[in-house]
Amino acid sequence: MEKSNPTISRISTTDGEELSVAKGKYRILIGGEQTNGSYAVIEMRIPSNGGPAPHSHDQIQESFYVAEGEIEFSTESGKLLARKGDFINIPLEGGAHAFKNISDTTALLICTVIPAGLDNMFKEISKVASPEEARSIGEKKYGIRFYPPNFLD
Questions:
Q1: Does the N terminus or the C terminus of the chain have fewer Cβ atoms within 10 A?
Q2: What percent of the chain has pLDDT over 70?
Q3: Cβ-contact 17, 27 below 8 angstroms
Q4: What letter would DSSP give residue 52?
Q5: Are 56 and 139 in contact (CB under 8 A)?
Q6: Reported pTM
Q7: What are the CA-CA distances from residue 138 to residues 39, 57, 61 (Å)?
Q8: Which residues does the UniProt record annotate as the domain Cupin type-2 (predicted)?
Q9: Domain containing residue 39
């Protein structure tokens, strides 16, 4: 049996598709099309007071490394404050969650999703005009469940 020779890749600071999502700037570092759908890594620049509404996705594991700033993660079991260097894991069937940048400066998260898919959703919703359209795409095409803004308070 012949062994394949996969190519090691480097993604520079100027590579990757930059998107506007939930008032933040997301950059797809590596998407599902490069990983055969197994995972995606997204750089997320979240402005002060920015972040997504409460939501859940049972079939996607999501993790976040906080590279800059302070992010408050809200979950069904309470709130977690994540600072630079912290790592947050949302397991499969991890329940409703949201996050918000509580610092005065832009926060930087490195998000990994397994399997890939949210990267494609971010690409799609970055092209629509309204939050309602984005929500509809997330729900109907990607199986995201959204909750009222105060759901995790």
A1: N
A2: 97
A3: yes
A4: P
A5: no
A6: 0.90
A7: 18, 10, 16
A8: 44-112
A9: 17-146
